[in-house]
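As described in the Methods, two query proteins were run sequentially through the folding procedure within a single session, without resetting any intermediate state between them. The first query and its resulting structure tokens are shown here.
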Amino acid sequence: MKLLERKKNKLKFLGMTILKFVVKPKGIGVYFLGLHLKTLKSKLGQIIYNFQDNKDFDTRHYDKEIAEITADIKFPKIRPDNHKIAFLATRLFDMGGHSKCLRDLLCALNGKYEQKLFLTQISALQKDRPNIMSDINKYCTIDGTDFVIIKFHQCVKELAKKISSYSPKALFVYIHPDDIFGAAVLSVLRHKGIQILFFDHASHFPVLGMNFSDFVLNGLPSSEKITHKKRHFLHTKIVGLSSVSKDKTVYYSKADLNELKLNLGIKKGYQVTLSGGSSYKFFDKNNSSEYFEMILRILQKKKKLNHLIMSDITPEQQNIINKIFKNSPKEKQRLIFLPFQTDFDKYFQCTDVFIDSFPVSSALTQIDLMRNKVASVVKINKKQPELSFHEYQMPNYPYMFERVKDMENAIIELLNDPKKRQKIIEKNYKFWLKTYEISATRKRYIKILEGK
């Protein structure tokens, strides 16, 4: 059943309804509503099917095949309007960092350019009704297309025409790594007069469509190296990420934060640590979790500490946690699980120390911690740099470590020393102001758009 569920999740990116999964003696037969077996065997179907389990960052051959499929879709050269820019994304979500990155960049460039957002799954807005839409609507208009695989060429033409008719000088790309439809649109629009800037927001995944861009915008030096050496794409720029304006953050009073702690079941006088992120970031490949083993040791050392986990833990993952805490019922009582929160700032601010997830880092969260004035301890993953995002920190950040034991000691040190916490909080906030705050990032993106 785990394999069936994994297949199901991987195939959802197509925006197709899965009719049923049938287990056969020789494997899994996958049947799609409206998708004939002949289509599955076609060039497009083979790309979709093969990319499901692809682990190779070099996706040039996939993009080449996509370009061959769309070669008969012809578009004239576009005369770009230097006052317009556009964005291409798959869909938007309240949770997760990618939609927030898009929103914050729209905000940063608002007023300098006319902006429009195009989505490859436009009807998902009606279904999800994400709260983030209320912000994005302040900065741009939204259009898009719903792709249907049996109308592939028609859908590609439709969205490509909408973008070309808008005539932007540049197109920022935020499509999902497996969005073959978005990639096909890029293959049609390349070399047509619009500068295609592919934002590497999924730097730890293979992605489709990157090879149709003029530049890949990387957030970190390590992700740029991955783009060069593993993706074999050399036209890159490091731009960092855009956060919100310094005036946008609400800093809550002690009374408000104490009330939140009380509602969470945290006793008066107890300290709080927090980790957050998609659940896969906390578990190793061999059905274990070095992360939760570390958390147990910290809870054993700090008797007046609650640890919060803001994630989407699955029943299987909960079983792993139960095994780790099997002989430590008192410590497990101080482990509190929370669903993802759209208003996470308040939860961050009630935290004494934020603990980075591993083996996959919490990435964009680190920037929000700087903004919220929260001390954090960060994990470095040198063996798999695509899973490590420590470079979001200031150079020589004193609380990032490769060894788990060093990380654990630093967490205890910060919990025990409020002066050290305050010192690193102040340094982090100053670094955020000059590196990620909207006025700083706005200048960097304008330079790219103006060719400077």
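Immediately afterward, the second query was submitted; its sequence and tokens are:
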Amino acid sequence: MAATVAVGIDGLKELVGEDLGYTDWMEITQDRVNQFADATGDHQWIHVDPERAKDGPFGGTIAHGYLTLSLTPVFMPQLIEIQGFSMGINYGCDRVRFPSPVPVGSKLRCGAVIDEVTDIKGGVQMRVTLTFEAEGQDKPACVATIVLRNLL
């Protein structure tokens, strides 16, 4: 899928309310989960101990919720290419929920809707709702409203 291209402030504002579609699927491997555990210090057994997790509530290891959210910089360029700004920065999150687990070995993808684009000094601020889906799950793995700033 080709990313939607937005040029400048007007180009972003034209996309408010638009569904940007979904990214390609990405497999979530145990190695990736283990690396995230090492980076964050979260070595809970439901993430890093496949043997113990077999008898756990999910029947195997699952990705950390924050690992799912941290894949935003991987997925966003597949959804939107923003041109005409000197830089873009992550300004934070308004809301993050993890309705269902991401089993290790499953595939994950992300969709986005631009909720709002508002003028700020030197550029614009965007609110974007991201929906992360794990293949085969009925509910989303993560739904997050993120705030981004694009500066001229």
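The first strand starts at residue 4 and ends at 7. We note this only descriptively and draw no conclusion about the first query from it.
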